[in-house]
Design a protein that fits this description.
Structural class: alpha+beta
Strand content: 35-45%
CATH class: Mainly Beta
CATH topology: SH3 type barrels
Length: 79
């Protein structure tokens, strides 16, 4: 399943990221924030309007707001 489909408050691990589908600068920022293969994540909140953007994702002790398109590029497995 992809990160954008992960139910809220369920821990998961990123197993793969489709880096070529992301803009290079955005991919670099996501990596700098720790959103890469092996990272443990969980969805905290989803936006309420339109496409439900942004998605608030807990990574370690921080929360990062992601666009749905970025979360859709990340394959996760529930822990």
């Amino acid at each position: 399943m992809t990160l954008d489909m992960l139910p809220a408050d369920r821990p998961a691990r990123i197993v793969a990221v489709d880096w070529p589908s992301l803009v290079q600068e955005e991919a670099g920022r996501l990596r700098a924030l720790g959103l890469e293969e092996g990272a443990k994540v969980s969805v905290s909140h989803r936006g309420v309007f339109g496409g439900r953007d942004p998605i608030a994702v807990a990574v370690g002790r921080m929360t990062v707001a992601l666009r749905r398109a970025h979360a859709a590029a990340m394959q996760v497995e529930e822990l």
